[in-house]
Structure formats: C-alpha cells, structure tokens
Amino acid sequence: MTTLQSSTQRTTTHDTPPAERLVLGAMMFGTAVDEPTSFAVLDRFVDAGGRWIDTADCYAFWASESGYGGQSEELLGRWLAARPGMRDRILLSTKFGAEPRDAAGWPASRTGLSAAAIREQITGSLRRLGTDRVDLVWAHMEDRSVPIEETADACAALVSDGVAARAGTSNHPAWRVERARRHAVAQGKEPVSVVQHAYSYLQPRPGTLTGNHRFGWLSDDLVDLAAVEGLDVWAYTPLLSGAYDNPAKPIPEVFDHPGSTQRLAVLDDVAAQVGASRGQVVLAWLTARGIRPMLGGSKVNQLDAAVAALALEVPAELLERMNEVDATAPRA
C-alpha cells in the first residue's frame, strides 16, 4: 500500500518537534473559551514548539451574542499584541466565505466566495488579527453561486499580493478543488495547495452527513488527489470531540455501524500495546498517513496529551493493522 506523500508528510519527520505537526484550532477562543484560558493554551502550544494556529472570520457566530463572528480573530489579535515578536514565531491560518450576512438566515445568507467578498473579508481578518499577512487562507465552504475559477483567481491574487503565503479549500468536493487548481495553473497563477476536512479513524456510514457541510468529510477522491498532486491535508475533529476517551461523550450516531465495531477493537488493542489512549493513537495514525491533525482543545492538559501523542512510536505493523482492518479507509 502506498502512503499519502504530500508536503505535510515530507516535512513531518522525527526531527520535528511533536507540537509542530499539530494545528491548534482557535474556533471557540473568545466565546466558549474565555480569554485567560485561551491565552494559556496558546502560550503552552508555542512553548511546546507548535506553530500553526487556525481560525476563521466566522468563528464563532453561533456562540456569540450578536450572531456574527470575528471573536476568535480578535482574541488572537489581542494575544499577538500582548506577546511582542510572537507573530514571527507562529503561522496563521484563517478562512473566509462562511460568515453570516444575516444572522437569522445562515447558511443561505453568508459572505460567499466572490472576488469582491474575498477581498473584503481578508481585509477584516487582517484588521482583527492585527497583522498585514497570514500564512494560509482558505475558501471555507463552497459557494456554487460563484464560478470556482473566480474564487481561484481571488485566492491567487492574495498570494501574489503578499497578503497570504498559500491558499487552500475547506469542505469542497474533489472535482471543484481540481478545477480550481487546473484553472490557476493554466493562467500561470498560484493554485490552492491544501485541503481541510473532517477526518478520523472511525468512518461514517455512507450517505450520512457528519456536520454542516455536504462535502465536509475527507473522501477517498480527495486523498487520492492530494497524493497525486502533492497537496497538504489537514483534518479537523480528529478526536470526534473527545468521544474516543470520554465516557460522557458517546460516539456520534453516524459512526454507529459494524465497521466501527471492528475499528474500535483494533484501536483498543493498539492503544494497550503502546500504552496510550485511543485518541492519542488516532493522532499518531493520522500523522503517519501524512495528515496534519487539528486540535480544538480548550484546556492545557488536552493540548499536552495531543503533543505526547505525536511523539508516540507506533510500530509499522500496528499502523498497518489499523489501515487494513476493513476496506473503507481512504487509500493513497
């Protein structure tokens, strides 16, 4: 079996600090996670060697009193302002396209991915973050009202203007990612080079929706595209919001099928053999496949456990057993 060979994997080696292989998701910072706790988690992440911090202009509109987002970016801006020199130590990732225009009408009413909307949104993000550049921008959720070529051109313009170092897509089907890339390359412009989707060791039942996005789950097509084109792959909700290890959080119903029973049995056995938790093994398995996990933890101890997971040495034969438990896992 071949392995996903993206630039994520090529740069993720045992010489890399474990935390550098992780993305810290700042979704609930400034809303459900208060400022002192958010600052403590951010400080610990950087102290551990972490670099990538991910946010979005719409975070977290559903948890805010106003019904609009921006709180996460604003908190990160305050944290950066309070930590002189920190901006040069971290890598910032933010998204656009999913912020409500009418708080009562989401998702039908949202900012979207037209060229004008993208430029307006990134301008707001930079203001809130207190910086003149980000290291990665994302088209957050697909916008079928706009030609994907227009979105691709707008993302490429952000790179050529020095506003962003790279661009990616989140929650887009593989065919639209490839169409955007093909258009950009044909125009001599910078193509999107990263994809971000939900993914974990357990796989949902076919035909089920795992969140708010029709194409939110990382599909076999996307894994194959990433392997062939050398795209980075980021995975959000890799720990199923704590369900692997927290008895108070049941495994979501969309994962309730015989394949999950088999996978959980293998996961339990591997975890026992390496002396780690289920969630830690899942994180180690993802990075072994060349996928960068995103942690949305709200506590320092959760972050410490994730960093420890990425330092795990899971024997190749155990990883292979996890891969081969059934035929549903995406293959590169």
From TrEMBL:
Gene Ontology annotations for the cellular component aspect, listed alphabetically: cytosol
Organism: Promicromonospora soli
Origin: domain of life: Bacteria
Annotated NADP-dependent oxidoreductase domain residues: 21-326
PANTHER family, per database record: NADH-SPECIFIC METHYLGLYOXAL REDUCTASE-RELATED (PTHR43364), OXIDOREDUCTASE-RELATED (PTHR43364:SF6)
Protein known as: Oxidoreductase
Signal sequence residues: none
